[in-house]
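hey all, quick one before standup. I had two proteins in the batch that finished overnight and I want to keep them in one place so we stop losing track of which output belongs to which input. First protein below, input sequence then structure tokens straight from the run.
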Amino acid sequence: MRKNLFVLMALLVTAALVMSACAPKPTPAPTQAPTKAPTEPPTKAPTEPPVPAGPPDLTGETITIYHFGDLSGPYASITAPLIHGAEDAVKAVNEAGGIYGATLEIKFADDAGSIDEAVAAYDRFTGENPNALVMITYGSGEAEALAQRFAEDKIVNITAGLSAQAFYGAGSGYTFGLGPIYPDQLAMTMKFLSENWATYKPASAGDEIKLAYLSWPTAFGQGGLTAESRAYLADLGIEIVAEETYDVSPTADTTTAILNAQNAGANVIWTNTLAFGPAALINGLNSLGLRDQFLVAGDNWTMDLATYAFLADPAYGVGLVAPFPYLWWTDADNAGVQYAQGLFDANARPSSEHNVGYLLLVAGVDMVVKSITRAIDTVGYENLTGEAVHNALVEMSPFDALDGVLKADFSGGSRSPHMSQIRMIQGGPDKFIVIQDWIDTPDLRPAE
């Protein structure tokens, strides 16, 4: 019996093993392939102007600026100090290492006061250098005639010709000034006089300002009168009672212009001239015995040592009023004035050139160097263009040229400074006394 039981158990185990072996194998769980993230097409970063990694070494390179003006015509004696100020300033820049080691070169052309010659000089310079960066001009006529060309060719023009038309006329945009435009200067001065008439009016004058505009028949001479300045004066209640011209000559006869102003009842004379221009007028007033009947005012260039060279008597200059958009040589505590005086002395310039032209062009070259340096820092030397210099002048505004000798702000579409003092001659040469400290000028840009 027990034997049969063992046999039966053995058979059951064997059957179980057979059934297990014959059973279907378990199906493994399906393996899911890893999901690959969708591939986006690569996005190309927007192209930006190349930014230099640091100050470059431009040793062996040359950066040229160009200037042209009258060195043999009617303005020769006036232009010479401007030219020498620019040349001495460039020399000093190179002695100090240039611009990142690059030599700054300055090339001049004498246009003899001729617009045609100025255009010819421009064509010659641009023919020599298709990538000209900066040109300096000295007269309103040249600045007006070439304003569109400067913009088309994207060449910055730094100019002492403070013409509203040159800066803001149709097609302009690359002409920048070394002072406020003449309409702003006229408006600023007349506003000051209207607010302080009781202090400065001639003894015989009434309570209202009657203005006579006596000036040269040139773009510069007529530069103060525009639709905007006429409207501004009218709003001030100032009537222009006479408009007269006289010759661009040291020996000009101003008698007719003066007598016409007197007959019209004028008590203020404005002249948009310089050097022998205001001198001829003031000499004429004194010769006629009429000096005390008028307050004489003029553009910024009238108040200068160059005027004294043509006055019959230095005392005749006393009482002249003018906007003064820069410092003067007597502001000797200013570092920029000290620097300019050092250049003047080192180059043994004659005392006759110790005037506003020399000082202002040292400041002008400082402006040029600052803007070129910023342009190089922004786009790199290999991409340096007049457009980059233009953009630098705008981007670095407001700024002080030559440690505050000139205050410039070319932001907001402005291409002329809008800050100035007003000064009066209250003594001999150099006694240019501040009667109104730095303030904003009216903004009489012409309507577009």
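OK second protein, same deal, sequence then tokens:
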Amino acid sequence: MYVEDTIAAISTPVGEGGVGIIRVSGPDSSAIARRIVRRSTDGDFESHRFYYGSVVDPATGLDIDEAMAVLMKAPRSYTREDVLEIQCHGGYLVTRRVLDAVLRCGARLAEPGEFTRRAFLNGRIDLVQAEAIIDVIRSKTDAALSLAQHQREGRLSGRIGAIQGDLRHALALVEAYIDFPEDEVDRASFAEIDSRSRGAFAAIEELLAGFDEGRVLREGVSVVIAGKPNVGKSSLLNTLLQEKRAIVTSVPGTTRDIIEEVVNVRGLPLRILDTAGVRDSEDLVEREGVRLTLERIPQADLVLVVLDGSRPLDADDRTIFEAVAGRRSIVVVNKSDLPRAFDRFPQALERAAVEISAATGAGIPELRELIFDTFIHGRAIDSREYVALSQARHRDALAAARERIAAFLANLSRGENLEILAVDLKDALHAVGEVTGETTPDDILDLIFQRFCVGK
């Protein structure tokens, strides 16, 4: 429930920094500014103007720190409420003391995400844009940031709004005939209802088709490097990272634990796991490493099966082939700078294969492209027009809406009762509304905003 009180929090990260920001939002923001910010000028704070002065303790009148303060009066603020921001020196103790001074003036400590939740409840942003804000903060690559910024700017919301517009138009026509049962649905109105609902269905289908791409840009993908010992798995990891992260020796079984690193491939975040070499071993530690490797393969979004092109295939290679059967994988034939010792590997794996030399770097650009194309299917993700779903919550809501529209179209073609048709459209609209927050239950809103930090 939204309570119109005044909240406050430190909005900058904990620790030392050049500037610390304390944010205040609510009806008492202006009064708090007048009480604790000492300036050289008297009178009210002008909106959106910075003032230099000192923050003082309201109990003692002593200076806490010099600061800049700005009051942003409603509705031209982040929350559409009166917002005060105080910028002081960045340090744990000084920002804490400024916040304490604000709280002693009647504000309460904000809950996680409460500033953004107020922006949503006050109609400044919808729920898609609110969720995009935290994705902007947590983005690991330029492509993930671009996708989040497009959603924050309202581009996905615009697509959703167009779908809602078509459904509402179709529903209005259906309900008009319910209100006037003596009128039969004429051919033009029937065609309009059919066209609008099919347009909404097609738009939802297009958004759902792009979900996998949006998800991997937002969340990244898990990539396991697997192979028998001494085929160059750790060398491949180091080459992709462009730094020496894993120990590389000529001794088989050097890597026994799983090493995880993040690599950016054209904006696609890869969580790469270098695993122990797979082979029969009497060494208990090495056997545990092999077990972990085989356990991680089914959990991965992609497996890079590394082969030593200078050595014939053997039973250990075939163990890996069996482990990745039916899974998304790329065969990486390493040591292309040496004579090739085999010509073929299982036909099921030949569709995605590349030859490289981790020692010279040959084939690495082609491997990067193949990894990228495995998840991003030729779409210009850096385009300003690129819009995609990236949240499972959005996908599930739109999938439910698609199901109800499909039911509506089937009932429409059979000439079902108009009241049944209206229920189908209302259900579809309710499902779509869950994406933008119009019909999202409070418990889901709580979960979404709890993901934010306290000062956001």
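Flagging for whoever picks this up: Residues 113 and 452 are 5 Å apart (CA to CA). Confidence is low (pLDDT under 50) at residues 246-256.
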